[in-house]
Recover the amino acids of this structure.
């Protein structure tokens, strides 16, 4: 039996871009005559904690986990009653709010032929009326091909969110199918990921190539291309296509 514990004494919130910018969610959902004005909002100091227990029973690997604390993804509160009419249109103040969330989950995995099959079910609970509860399930299949690995994951939420799902960021992509292929070559490594939102038909294509300059230095080039309906979690970032290049050092 194996145990894992993670504790963060302070909140580590997601660094979401300013609303209305090219890389921010909701970019395509904001009318042209409306401006969102974000107010300064400090996340709470307390963080979160999680405990995970793993064991092997016959040919099965089983596990369970519990988590409690502050949810890292903020909720957005649109102060419509405080909106201001200006010569350029309507200005709506927005605040980021962080809430507590508890979670519990179980996981199973086993080797079937040349595949590793994994399944997980998690219950997420919050007393906040806008976040609500969620029951998220995931099923994945992984197979190795020489120096490469193919991983396919299907995930979904059995409970409809109490608010527009796009406002919850992470849950907005569900249900989703994610396919990832990674491979190591003599000169370096590469990976390609295709994520598809099954509710709105939106998606995200990612690719990255890393070239070994030396034993410790690596040059990485990659890109991301969201597409599809702005009502989905991926399509909402349709304007955020980007390329990146980095030099990395490992030791």
């Amino acid at each position: 039996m194996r145990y894992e514990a993670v504790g963060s004494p302070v909140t580590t919130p997601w660094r979401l871009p300013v609303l209305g910018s090219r890389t921010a969610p909701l970019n395509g959902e904001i009318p042209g005559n409306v401006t969102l004005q974000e107010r300064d909002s400090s996340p709470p100091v307390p963080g979160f904690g999680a405990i995970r227990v793993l064991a092997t029973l016959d040919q099965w690997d089983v596990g369970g986990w519990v988590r409690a604390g502050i949810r890292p993804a903020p909720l957005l509160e649109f102060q419509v009653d405080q909106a201001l009419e200006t010569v350029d249109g309507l200005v709506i103040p927005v605040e980021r709010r962080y809430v507590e969330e508890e979670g519990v989950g179980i996981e199973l995995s086993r080797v079937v032929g040349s595949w590793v099959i994994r399944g997980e079910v998690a219950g997420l609970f919050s007393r906040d009326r806008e976040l609500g509860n969620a029951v998220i399930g995931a099923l994945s299949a992984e197979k190795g091909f020489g120096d490469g690995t193919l991983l396919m994951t299907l995930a979904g939420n059995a409970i409809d969110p109490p608010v527009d799902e796009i406002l919850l960021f992470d849950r907005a992509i569900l249900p989703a199918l994610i396919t990832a292929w990674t491979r190591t070559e003599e000169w370096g490594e590469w990976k390609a990921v295709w994520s598809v939102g099954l509710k709105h038909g939106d998606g995200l294509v990612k690719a990255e190539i890393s070239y070994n300059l030396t034993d410790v230095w690596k040059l990485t080039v990659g890109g991301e291309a969201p597409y599809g309906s702005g009502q989905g979690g991926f399509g909402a970032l349709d304007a955020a296509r980007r390329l990146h290049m980095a030099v990395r050092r490992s030791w």
